[in-house]
Amino acid sequence: MARPIRETPVLTGRSAERFRSQLFHNQGKKASKEELAAIKKDFEFISSFSTIKK
Question: Where are the alpha helices (DSSP H) in 1-54?
């Protein structure tokens, strides 16, 4: 039987400030063509294990 999923902890204090700062800092950034190619390659690799057909 599966274990229950624990609740996601709430960020407080410095952790919350750091998360919010990084969120706003990276909000408008886009992945480079190299990063997108690597992501697609990894997706295809992981998808090869799946039996679900597109």
Answer: 13-25, 33-47
Contact predicate 11/19, CB 8 Å: yes
Given a cut of 80, is residue 51 above it in pLDDT?
Answer: no
53's tokens: 């057909």
Q: Is the pTM of this model over 0.70?
A: no
Residue 32 to residues 12, 26, 35, 36, Cα–Cα distance (Å): 32, 13, 5, 6
| Per-residue pLDDT tens over the stretch 11-45 | 999 999 999 999 999 898 899 999 999 999 999 99
